[in-house]
User: What shape does this take?
Amino acid sequence: MVVSAGAWAQEEADLYSGQVLVADEGPQARAEGLRQILGQVLERLSGRESVGRGGAAEAVLARASSLVQQFRYLAPPQTQENGEAPAGRLLWARFDPGALERLLREQGVPVWHGRRPRVLLWLAEEQGAQRQLLNPAEDPALHEALRREASRFGTPLQFPLMDLQDQSTLTSADLWADYAAAIREASARYPHDLVLTGRLRTSPDGQWAADWSLWDGGAVEHFETRGEDRIGVLRAGIDALQERLLARHQPQTEGTGEEVLVRIEDVDSLTVYGELMRWLASEPDLQGVHLREADGSSLVLGLRAAAQEVLLRQLDAASVLEALPGIEAELEQPRRPAVPGLAVVRSYRFTGGR
Assistant: This one.
């Protein structure tokens, strides 16, 4: 039986709205609240946790009050501990999509356009000598934590029904062994773009750990997360998923930033390439990345930023890049440029993927 997405999937988030708790309904609390909500919106639109730390984003955040399309106050939710509502009010706001995106283009802040990939999540947990498939619907705290973390970036995270059909098609042993045939068969009934499987366990040092596999057709990428508690390690897994999605779907900007060409050496595998792209995606002032040339383990990348000098200083200071001397001498013997009119101005060895 094929299941319709609406019956079980997390709703896709409204990328342009959010809510925060504010002290009161006064103008000062509202202005600060709108700024915080706009920060949430920028995080979703760019897919980057670091976007709010860039200078360009600060210019956008400063105009939060003029960009708001509508807002209202709501009663805050009751706490689970004592059933009493916390002090303050819940401020909900939505920003004008057209005005906001125009300003983001002007400021060179990257925006992830298009539909986000739907990610189907299967989880298993090891408790002592027992392993079992997890059903987030039966664990409200876990379900809400996963939903909230995925919503931060606008990622549609989807959960299986865990009905008799699922349980007869996929077992905890299948999931623990990364048995591709069973995972594909169980996932086939659900509309999805990617499949994420997680195996939750406690490590010898007493911390929680999770082993993850991200399936994209026949290709699979493995990674691990650790944390002090069960929910924390699962949140870390969703964050690690987002880093990988961002590396695959680099948000681009239509801004007028300058492009600079740099050569990166020792990118000798897809794993190292993925590490490089994830590191670049975490740089808040970087507006876009374009692969301009590839020659073995050497890449020429076109990096776009509002200020070329600032970007080069950041690259020179990066702990994952080792500057290679002699680029000026190399440029004395011209080769076909990767981009007409531009020359490679820096050369580095990437050390972060090892």
Q: What stands out?
A: The first strand starts at residue 17 and ends at 22.
